[in-house]
Amino acid sequence: MTRYSSKISRAIFLVSATAMCLHTTPVVAYDLSTHAQIVIDAFEYILSADPKIKYLDGATGESDYTLVRDVLAPNITKKKVIETNIQKAANTLAEASKDTDLFDDVYLKPCALCSPEAKVSDVYFTLFSHFLDVVGDGAIWPIGGYYYGRVERSTNCSAEDNYEDKISNYFVKNLAARLDVVKSNAMRTYKEDRKPTISVEEYYKAFDQDIKHIHFWPITNLADYWYAEFLDINKNPKSKTGQPFDISLLGPVLHAVADVTVPFHAVGLSGCGHREYEANVERWYVLSKKLYDRTLVAKYLSTNAVADQRLSLKTMLSDLARTAAGGNCKCTRLSCSCPIVRDEKIAKSLVNLAVASSVVAVRKGFTEWKNNKARGQKDFDPILSSTKHPYEGIWFSHWSDVPVQKDMVIGEKPAEIEFDSKIVLLKGQVSKFSEGDLDKAEFKITFLRTVDDAAEIIPLFKTGKWDPEDFSPSFKEFPNLPPIHAPEPQFRPPTLEEIEDNAKWKLYMIRREQFNQSNAIFEAGKRKVALKAFAKRAYDKETLKVVDDTIQSLDITIDHSATRVQFLRAAANIEYDIIK
């Protein structure tokens, strides 16, 4: 007997669906949409589980539901209000989990005279915080994190054909980058639980060298830090309604839970096939809905030794990583290979393990938060993104409705006016293609010609520089999380009619993906403009090589997304005719 219908479960998914950028793929464990979906499915399971089912750590389906209700909807008896509160919390946690991939907390200096950067292209350097090497020896911590030496010695890492895998390893290997210890907040927040023999001075000295020689902190440190923030009686007291004041603080913990179930990240491998694996998981899990299995989640919660809230968070994550790595990766103390890239059966097992472990993490976190009697209260409403959505104002029904807005003066007239017109033209070309007014061949010719024209104008600016992100919607950060990269425009939320009707739901999802792919084309075009202009001023061969590789990857993105848009246009027309 379940408490909620599949339509309510679908609605919970859709509350957070607008926060998922299916085309945004930073090089970290799992895509953004996969991280969000794991959180949503964890709550879906809690709401739909058999109340009588008993779990390994003594919890039951009924006690999990009661706990979630008591924490998120205290003193509320109306079922609809309870549902709404849980939906808001699931949405907030899904967003906070995925946004952990976009923290601006690790900065690298690619050269001695270069400014520190938090990312290159779509590769965020916070990725170095997202590994747990359970098969190697920790240099600074008992269990280490990312270390390029393992990548360098591992098979399937040197001849990668996936751009996202290649570019992160190329940057580390070839550009002699160094960590900016001043701007990299993660270096301070995630440093604890070092080996007793490692002093503070030795710790900082270990990071004062070429990045390919650095042993980074394990993801368990990230999880412990944010878990402590969530439980902190001052930073996360009760709101005036009795809920956690800032539930988003638990998001990075749920992110870490999902990360350690990715075999590549459990053994410290960046690249080496993990991006292709994650792309496949997104396709099977988020898009095709083929992997989530409530029965398998229940089995893990009832029989897997990791599914025990009585374990410390660090132990739970370490054991999860060993489970993910065991049997899926072939490792020595020096190198590893994980030949699972196209194995849907293994992906299904690991995704449901991530969902089950997320249920345990919510159970553990909510129980400890609730039981702290010293917790104070703030006279404010809880921070729930569905109440005050951070992406509010950037939902659109058609990609052609997305405004192009500029936040800063970049040059001097008349060059600036001419350049602005080219960017607006780029946007208009994508709009026409998305709406079906241009075929793919015609669109690519005109679009790429406009990209080249815009790139020729930038060097004419007498002052300032142009960054493609300056043409992005405004963004409001989560109050207590580190700064994150501005999100891209989002397709509108579904209507109740679309949630209820399967045919209209399918059409909604097609149009949403069409919107996302159109936006991916425009974003790739903007970045190509900036890179082509930069290449005209760069004389260093290594830098030019990275720029050329990035431009090639953008061309691939444009071609791939254009093919998808053309296919989705046709699919939408078919579904629309069926509905009529």
Which properties best describe this structure?
2 domains, 20 helices, 52% helix
Please, could you describe this protein's structure?
- It is a single chain.
- The chain is mainly alpha-helical.
- It has 2 domains: 380 residues, no CATH class; 185 residues, no CATH class.
- It is built from 20 helices and 8 strands.
- Strands 1-4 form a two-stranded antiparallel sheet.
- Helix 9 packs antiparallel against helix 10 and helix 10 runs antiparallel to helix 15.
- The relative contact order is 0.12.
- About 10% of the residues have low confidence.
Q: In a few lines, what is going on in this structure?
A:
This protein has 580 residues and is mainly alpha-helical. The protein has helices spanning 6-17, 32-48, 61-72, 79-99, 148-153, 163-174, 186-189, 200-206, 219-231, 251-259, 263-266, 274-287, 294-303, 313-325, 344-371, 415-435, 440-457, 496-500, 502-535, 541-579, and strands at residues 108-109, 119-120, 123-124, 178-179, 330-331, 336-337, 395-396, 490-491.
List the helices and strands and how they pair.
Elements: H1 6-17, H2 32-48, H3 61-72, H4 79-99, E1 108-109, E2 119-120, E3 123-124, H5 148-153, H6 163-174, E4 178-179, H7 186-189, H8 200-206, H9 219-231, H10 251-259, H11 263-266, H12 274-287, H13 294-303, H14 313-325, E5 330-331, E6 336-337, H15 344-371, E7 395-396, H16 415-435, H17 440-457, E8 490-491, H18 496-500, H19 502-535, H20 541-579
Parallel strand pairs: 7-8
Antiparallel strand pairs: 1-4, 2-3, 5-6
